[in-house]
Write a structure and sequence with these properties.
Length: 282
């Protein structure tokens, strides 16, 4: 009888413990819900007034600032605060050591034409193992004053496969085509919705899965690709570059790596030197 009582008592005590624990968990969950409902995040509770004059913030400076202005000392706590600041849009992570003071978006071309989508889907299926990108001249309209009215679809592929891709596209689509044209050829034969197949420089920065152009490649190509630079005035270079860096995340190391392959490092430096953290080792 005594043993049965002790067994019952043991079960009862443990059940009470579990009830207390369950109640604690429920209260904690409710607290979290009330804290974050309506889009509120931890990052909104922290102000970076002491860093508001900095366009780019070095990670070391951000960590030291947060230690001074919060009660956090542990690395894990500081990492969490930084995560929440990024999540809330107060800062944007550029690379492992730098943050932009504000919101920058990932770049993806807007308002793509139906024909571009069809071309992109075609090369994805037929040439799944090749590096190919597809983009349009109208991608520049986001930044230039005189809008591009004649749309051209560019298909860039490794030099060895250019002719094969060109032939396949021409057999499948009824557009006008040019294969790796000079600027003179373009002016002679250009038409609306023309498809131009040209050489993709090796190790160019591209989105391999989506087959879209990366912003780092586009920045360099406006200086080096005559067919692209002809769509806007050279006097707009500064405006375009400034707009790009204030809207989108740019991996400056990727941009300079590509520029070096095109012998354009000095020219790129001229236009972007004030657009990225000075500490970056290009």
């Amino acid at each position: 009888m005594a043993e049965d009582y002790l067994c019952f008592y043991f079960v009862y005590v443990n059940c009470q413990k579990y009830k207390i624990l369950a109640n604690y968990i429920e209260k904690f969950e409710n607290k979290l819900y009330n804290r974050y409902k309506g889009g509120d995040t931890m990052g909104n509770n922290y102000k970076l007034d002491g860093l508001k004059d900095k366009k780019y913030i070095l990670k070391e400076d951000l960590v030291n600032y947060l230690k001074k202005t919060t009660n956090y000392e542990k690395k894990s706590s500081i990492r969490w605060v930084i995560h929440e600041l990024v999540k809330s849009g107060k800062i944007t992570k550029i690379d492992s050591e730098h943050f932009f003071n504000g919101v920058l978006k990932e770049f993806f071309p807007k308002n793509e034409s139906e024909r571009k989508k069809e071309v992109k889907d075609f090369v994805k299926e037929k040439y799944s193992n090749l590096d190919i990108i597809v983009y349009e001249s109208t991608v520049l309209n986001e930044w230039i004053n005189h809008q591009v009215s004649r749309n051209v679809i560019f298909v860039e592929v490794e030099k060895f496969f250019m002719e094969d891709v060109f032939t396949s596209l021409r057999e499948h689509f009824n557009n006008d085509f040019l294969l790796n044209p000079s600027i003179d050829d373009y002016y002679l034969y250009a038409k609306d919705d023309m498809i131009i197949v040209s050489n993709l420089i090796t190790r160019a920065p591209i989105h391999k899965d989506s087959r879209e152009i990366r912003i780092e490649k586009l920045i360099v190509d406006i200086f080096s690709n005559d067919l692209i630079s002809e769509f806007f005035s050279h006097s707009e270079y500064d405006t375009v570059i400034n707009s790009v860096f204030n809207m989108y995340k740019v991996n400056i190391k990727k941009a300079f790596s590509y520029a070096k392959r095109r012998n354009l490092s000095e020219k790129l430096e001229k236009y972007v030197k004030n657009q990225y953290p000075s500490e970056v080792n290009k």
